[in-house]
Amino acid sequence: APVIQVSQLTKRYRGKAAVDSLSFTVQPGRVTGFLGPNGAGKSTTMQLMLGLTRPDEGSATVGGRPYRELVQPLRTVGALLEARSVHPGRSAYHHLLWLAQSQRLPRRRVDEVLDLVGLGDVAHQRAGGFSLGMGQRLDIAAAMLGDPGVLLLDEPVNGLDPAGVRWIRDLMKRLAAEGRTVFVSSHLVNEMAVTADHLIVIGRGKLIADCPTVAFVADN
Ligand code: ADP
Ligand code: ADP
User: Fold this and answer.
1) ipTM reported for the complex surpasses 0.85
2) ATP-binding among the record's keywords (predicted)?
């Protein structure tokens, strides 16, 4: 069964559609790439999926319900929208512990997510000394605190060096192999070609393609 369902979703800003009658579903156990140029409507779609802004028409459900109606949202969906950098003087460990406590999530998850993103060895160092890629991994660790089955990542590899890109790509593939639903946006065709199993391609808010990555790459 699809874990994410977007149906006839429309969002307008000052009368202009940022997302325009968009419909697609996302399946578990694979990485689904959400590909489109800057301004195509990817961030707006993800904000709609997370209930951060209201649609003008249509709906988006995650785990069978609109986000705002989820009983345990943090255990259902994790998201990386834009780098919310941790306070630079804080350690990764303290940042995650504070989040776990304020979200009433079990303390043991802090060590689990630090291991997941490979920051266990630097967990007690100042996060201000982290590279951009390590900062992104820390934000993904924060998104995974609730052990959600669905992960939404908005342009997670933007600006990273090749090693940082590879780290996050491998992490997304590992999470999908565990049966999670990974939905990742990017404007980089070549990056999505090697990361995603399936592609949802949009332009000007409208669906352009919804197909296995191999099929899209062969045609473009
Ligand atoms: P993408 O994530 O693909 O780059 P966005 O969803 O950020 O695309 O933007 C889609 C379109 O909607 C763009 O034209 C953008 O300028 C516009 N837009 C996005 N958010 C807002 C907003 N809060 N107010 C007005 N226009 C917006
Ligand atoms: P992205 O390409 O990842 O969407 P943007 O810089 O386009 O990054 O958007 C970052 C934030 O600014 C988003 O929350 C988006 O909704 C908002 N935004 C984008 N375009 C506009 C706009 N024209 N007016 C107001 N807010 C906007």
Assistant:
1) no
2) yes
